What we know:
The protein is of the alpha+beta class.
Amino acid sequence: xxxxxxxxxxxxxxxxxxxxxxxxxxxxxxxxxxxxxxxxxxxxxxxxxxxxxxxxxxxxxxxxxxxxxxxxxxxxxxxxxxxxxxxxxxxxxxxxxxxxxxxxxxxxxxxxxxxxxxxxxxxxxxxxxxxxxxxxxxxxxxxxxxxxxxxxxxxxxxxxxxxxxxxxxxxxxxxxxxxxxxxxxxxxxxxxxxxxxxxxxxxxxxxxxxxxxxxxxxxxx
Length: 221
């Protein structure tokens, strides 16, 4: 795993090497094609020679292959440049709170923010908070909510008005629009402790020892 401090090594790893390999591959393809074409022309039947249309067609195929190789080279170069850039951007998030997919709460650790992302507006949203045993602790009727990311803070109280015991809780969201369920993604607040990069791309390492992708961030605090 490559840490944020090693972003220069990431650049070296994914930089010039990929481009030279692609260039070499394209050159080898061109050389093989031309060798086959020359051999084909040298050994053609004098009574039935290749016509111009056939030669032109084969040259067009070579051009297509070269075009694909060039496109792959550019895509690889772009992909290589994105990694270090995202690492640098993600490093600025260290110490910041982020809303990412998740369904846990822990008021004692100030992780008391309930977040959710709605695929479309809802005229009724209800949040249920359960303890570690799955028992209902608090129900929240939030009324109508807009599409996109929504967030609120749980006051740490139960349905009876008492303070909830310390510990980790889970929550779920039920959203409805016109009697039809609205798909949603639950989000929880966490703090970015470090940044790393692996085969899945840039990862945010969170304070609870979990990791999420850079693209999973929904909101930054």
